[in-house]
Amino acid sequence: MLVHRAYVQEADLEAWPFTVPAVTDLAEQGLAFTKPITFLVGENGSGKSTVAEALAEAFGLDSYGGKAGTKYASTREKSQLGEMLKLKTSVNGHRMMSGPRKARRGFFLRAETAMNLLSSLSGVPGYWEGSTDEMSHGEGFLTALDAMFTGPGFYVLDEPESALSFTSSLRLVELFTRLGRSGAQVVCATHSPILASTPGATILEFGANGISNVAWEDLLIVDHWRRYLNDPQTYLRHLLD
Ligand SMILES: Nc1ncnc2c1ncn2[C@@H]1O[C@H](COP(=O)(O)OP(=O)(O)OP(=O)(O)O)[C@@H](O)[C@H]1O
Ligand SMILES: [Mg+2]
Fold first, then answer.
1. CATH number where 122 lies
2. Which of 126, 158, 194, 220 is the most buried (most CB within 10 A)?
3. 232 domain-assigned
């Protein structure tokens, strides 16, 4: 583990982002990480990206996407939460955070910039073999992720599933599991019940009452998917009549 806890010292609970229930909860209780892999799950607008981005920024990961400690790192300003978020780290985590940028392993993969990043970095030495331009969206994405997950770093991902098929999502579960076993730490915001099923992961559900630690089978998304796949008409009837 690299990061044990995230917290803020002084929050203005009247102002965004602390008005988002999950972020209010984070400000009041802090957020503990006890397993190498943590998923942030919840409805649109529940605060997953806000928290994921702030964690990446607080650790000093590049906040645009791309590997930390390289010239491709962006100089984007920190988000409001990222400015205020503090991390309680392990010795290794502390060494990475306080050392030079190059010592910092890991990256932050933003949902919306992931594919742009891939095409701009394919063929650049030190990234991965071959051009991801000649692969399909999902193939390129997995190849790039595989190559970018190098060793025990802090990896923050926001909805990496968008490019991936069912089978490719399972491969990402395999990648996450391998990373977790290698001493890395992963925090991943997702809407995918497949990714969230990664064995041994903590799942934090963001909702109207804040953040709760939820078992996979009790997640709202799992319940919805189960019922939908079982009988789409029960949902569609309400929607389309
Ligand atoms: N810079 C900002 N200023 C004010 N409000 C913002 C800002 N960025 C996001 N928000 C709001 O904060 C809330 C949380 O947004 P966030 O992007 O973290 O949600 P999310 O859980 O990632 O949703 P999604 O599943 O759609 O990606 C939303 O209501 C959003 O509109
Ligand atoms: Mg989001």
1. 3.40.50.300
2. 158
3. no
